[in-house]
Amino acid sequence: MNLGSNEDTICAISTAPGVGGIAVVRVSGKMAFEYVEKVFSKPLAQSLSHTAHFGKMLKDGVVVDEVLATVFQGQKSFTGENTVEISCHGGLYIQQQILRLLLDNGCRMAEPGEFSMRAFLNGKMDLSQAEAVADLIASQNEASHAQAMHQMRGGFSKEISSLRERLIHFASLIELELDFSEEDVEFADRTDLKELVDEILALVNKLVHSFSLGNVIKNGVPVAIMGAPNMGKSTLLNALLKDDRAIVSDIAGTTRDTIEDSVVINGVQFRFIDTAGIRKTENEIETIGIGRAIEKANQASVVLYLVDASSITREELVTATSEFQEQISDPNKSFIVVGNKVDRHTGDIGELYSKFEFLDEVVFISALTGKNIDGLTDLLIQKLNLGEIGNHDTIVTNERHHKELLEVQKSLTEVRQGLDMDITGDFLAIDIRKSLHHLGAITGEISTDDLLSNIFSKFCIGK
Ligand code: GDP
């Protein structure tokens, strides 16, 4: 992206590509009003901000379309520059003609994310907020939408900025001490500095911790469906997805690779992964499938282990579950045993329950008839503890922020240890500077052209 061209007035179609009832062409920059006036039937420059003007788009005196031009004056716009949003009829030809007219009369085509980048450069939002705009548009479920919204309104960046300001204050006092190094003075009160570092570390630790949850909210909760062949894994996936995506068959070992699909339950996106059946096999392809299945289970947030509740004996269950759990590397992984095929069970229900008694977490279902699938999904929601997240809690969902926060955590921990060991100011100053750098990188107070173009080029044109 050419970052040196902020003097240009840019334009782009800001609505989704394709035909619609209406489309919006956005124009932003110093000359926005003047350029639009060249092809619009009414003057705009003197209009009040946030007013809409009905008029005609004209090419050599011929009407291209009747449109509504909305005027945003300078700082009051999204970008912080003079902006006109032209709402035209949504035909492709009309959209292209209007864009052509604007390009022929002084505007330049906007680069991907350039409107948002200008908003950042003009101080309308900080970097983490700009990134939230992208997340907001990309969000596919209620929870990730709420997070992006919260972040866009300021999220944790205000808190980070103010803590950073206080740290800058200390940094400058310590740098001052270095100037007077001969005289052994201490301008920066070490106890106060320790307190501040602890305060920042507490926030940073909380934010770093929230990332695993944030990731889940943004990308969906991975749930692996595991178990021996023919236990009903594919049938369960279909019941969860409510369609016939996975192949169901009576021949053992049909699901050789993993199948994955998403479904939104109570506002949370789940990614269900149907895996190859786990059994001892000579078949090479099946062995690879099983290896992948175990890998998926290790990556998943929750593992569902399916057994045939109607036929399994207590001894078989004990062996199967313990053998399976041995292959899962994280002993704290959420692990739910699912007793499937309860529709086949005849006889005493108490007898069925007693076989499973020794397990911590078990749920009985029939994937075939749909019995208690809701019970299973309720349990999944409960497992995630999502109820604890309100709209006001700060959750880090952005990979870049997470990386910067880890760096802050590292350097601040070093500052803290340095303070405990009474190390000299010059060493403290190095680690404090590092922390300041990474804190500033989150909100964009410290940024490079490369970083900016990397972030904004991921946006689409018109954003
Ligand atoms: P997978 O190998 O674990 O994926 O098992 P499938 O989903 O392919 O199911 C194997 C067989 O068990 C199929 O014939 C299914 O119709 C049957 N099946 C799956 N779930 C149930 C259930 O809840 N009740 C009954 N009676 N049969 C089931």
Quick summary of this structure?
The protein is α/β, with parallel strands linked by helices.
Explain what the structure shows.
There is one protein chain. This protein has 463 residues and is α/β, with parallel strands linked by helices. The chain is 46% helix and 17% strand. It contains 15 helices and twelve strands. Strand 10, helix 10 and strand 11 form a beta-alpha-beta unit. Helix 13 runs antiparallel to helix 14. The longest helix is centred in the middle third of the chain and has 30 residues. The radius of gyration is 29 Å and the shape is flat. It starts with 9 loop residues before the first strand and ends in a 7-residue tail after the last helix. The site of guanosine-5'-diphosphate has 20 residues, from helix 8.
Cα separation of the termini: 14 Å
Mean pLDDT: 84
Q: Strand tally, please?
A: 12
> What ligand molecules are bound, each kind once?
guanosine-5'-diphosphate
What general outline do the C-alpha atoms trace?
flat
What's the main sheet like?
6 strands, mixed
| Contiguous uncertain segments of 5+ residues | 244-251
- Biggest sheet strand order reads 3-4-5-2-1-6
Question: Structural class given helices, strands, pairing?
Answer: alpha/beta
Q: How large is the count of helical segments?
A: 15
Q: What share of residues are in beta strands?
A: 15-25%
Q: What is the helix/strand order?
A: EEHEEEHEHHHHHEHEEHEHEHEHHHH
Helix proportion: 40-55%
For the CA atoms, what is the radius of gyration?
29 Å
